[in-house]
Amino acid sequence: MPPSSNIRQLLDSIQKIAKVHNTEVTAKKIDKILKEGFGNLHVICDFDGTITKYYKNKDKKERSPSSHVILSLSSRLTSEFKEKTQALCDKYYPIEVDNSLTLEQKIPYMVEWWEQAHELIINQNIKKDDFAAIVSETPMNIREGLKELIDKCKEKNVPFLIFSAGLRNVIEEALTKENLYHKENMHIVSNKMDFNPETGICDKFVAPLIHVFNKSEITIKDSPYHQTIEDRRNVILLGDSVGDLQMSRGIEHDICLNIGFLNYIDDDLLNSYLKIFDIVVLDDGPMDVVNMILQTIEH
Fold first, then answer.
1. Going by C-beta distance under 8 Å and a sequence separation of 6 or more, which residues neighbour residue 138?
2. pLDDT value, residue 6
3. I want to staple 26 with a disulfide (CB 3.0 to 4.6 A). Which of 94, 171, 191, 278 is the partner?
């Protein structure tokens, strides 16, 4: 059955601002989401490069700070920490984005990177009360349209899962500072720093370790959040890397509309993204696609 005029009109609007991989498959997914409404929907969203913009200054190719970088830029942390953290990034980031390597080949390097980065953090004697000041020093660069998306999900009681290989403590504080963290319908799965009850200092991270390519292995089935989504069969997934597609694999669902953010120009990567994401937003673009879908549900 061909898509309805409403679906065609919505797809036409989406294709003016983004790339659509397979219009027939995408139309079917959107049709089911629209017909079943907010009550059967939940959203899964990456943080770094998705909730936040990729570029702080696009003309200068200046990257927005990730949750790890927000921490490392703090005046409370030593210069030695910053040098060693940057050295890890210089060593391992090229491996993360190397299209000639398979995920299986990359994963051991990502584990090495995250474990070493976390050990450096633990050695800094960070206290829980430090995060408000840390985040204030280096505010996050929010993607345009994010507030509209989060506010609409809160209004319609749509569960919103943030799934990140970053630092939960930084993410939670950054969202709280922007009045974007709503415990009623939001849940964060990310690397969480744990604090010694006697000293108040971070002395470990809560297992499991989450890196960019193991999100499918992390389960939320034992969390209270899972009860809010177990009967919701439609998912909208938002991410900026191939690894983000794994975020929905541990969650039972009927359909998952995958929206990818390709934040910089790379024709080879665009072809790869179009094969795996239903919709690809280019050039560090705003949250307009998902907001258009939610607006259409409402109206």
1. 65, 69, 70, 73, 74
2. 84
3. 278
Is residue 89 domain-shared with residue 222, that is, in the same domain?
A: no
Instruction: Give yes or no for a contact between 280 and 27, defined as CB atoms under 8 angstroms apart.
Output: no
pLDDT at site 58: 85
Token output for 238: 């938002």
Please name the helix (run of DSSP H) or strand (run of DSSP E) that holds residue 255, with its range, or none: strand 255-262
Q: Which residues contact 116 (CB under 8 A, 6 or more apart)?
A: 88
Residues classed as catalytic: 46, 48
Q: How far apart are CA 228 and CA 184, in angstroms?
A: 10
3-class SS at 35? helix
Q: Return the CATH number at 100.
A: 1.10.150.340
Question: Does residue 42 share a domain with residue 87?
Answer: no
Burial letters for 173-206: b for 16+ Cβ neighbours within 10 Å, e otherwise? bbbeeeebbeeebbbbbbbbbebeeeeeebeebe
Going from the first residue of the chain to its last (299 residues), give the mean pLDDT of each consecutive group of 10, the final group possibly shorter: 81 95 94 97 96 90 90 93 94 92 93 96 95 92 96 97 94 95 94 95 94 79 82 96 85 93 86 94 96 94
Query: Could you tell me if 72 and 78 are in contact, meaning their C-beta atoms sit under 8 angstroms apart?
Result: no
Is residue 176, in this structure, part of any structural domain at all? yes
Report how far Cα 38 is from the mean position of its chain's Cα atoms: 21
- Residue 59 in any domain: the answer is no
| 3-class secondary-structure state, position 190 | strand
